[in-house]
Amino acid sequence: MEIQKKLSENAMQWLMDKSSLTKRLKNATQNKIHFCLIQDWQLENSKYNRMIEWQLEGIRWIQAKSFIPENSINEHTKALFEVNTRPIGEILFDDPNLKRTDFLLCEESDLTWTRRSIFDFKGQPLILIETFYPAFFAGIALC
């Protein structure tokens, strides 16, 4: 079945939007959504990875995993490692030359969807995998 038949038009717009998810979530929830750092940058298998969640009232809406190849770290990209407990989107989307691939979407289960994209940040790749949970879809339907 086509993705468009499984998701509302509003949900599709959210999943296919290449702009800053951080800004969009904050605007839609009137800054009530919370950023939670689950795992800070760790080197594993020649790549750095980081995991975060977006939660509203203690309920997980989105989980995001970022991956950067170890050899992509240089003086231009090191700012990504200095975000501490902030979303990396605050750094990425400040770059006017940022490029992002189209999304690869995958239905994990009923109302749980994952999208993957690759950013070109200052000439280096960053892979982002975001999983959207049922609470997200219920929440955006009310926004």
In short, what is this structure?
The protein is of the alpha+beta class and 143 residues long. It has five helices and seven strands; from the N terminus they run αααβββαββββα.
Description:
The protein has about 140 residues and is of the alpha+beta class. It has one domain (about 5-140): Chorismate lyase-like (Chorismate lyase), CATH 3.40.1410.10. The protein is about 25% helix and about 40% strand. The protein contains five helices and seven strands; from the N terminus they run H-H-H-E-E-E-H-E-E-E-E-H. The protein has helices at about 5, 10-15, 20-30, 90, 135-140; strands at about 35-45, 45-55, 60-70, 100, 105-110, 110-120, 125-130. Strands 1, 2, 3, 4, 5, 6 and 7 form a seven-stranded antiparallel sheet that branches. A hairpin with a 2-residue loop joins strand 1 and strand 2 (about 45-55). The longest helix has 9 residues, at about 135-140. The mean pLDDT is about 95.
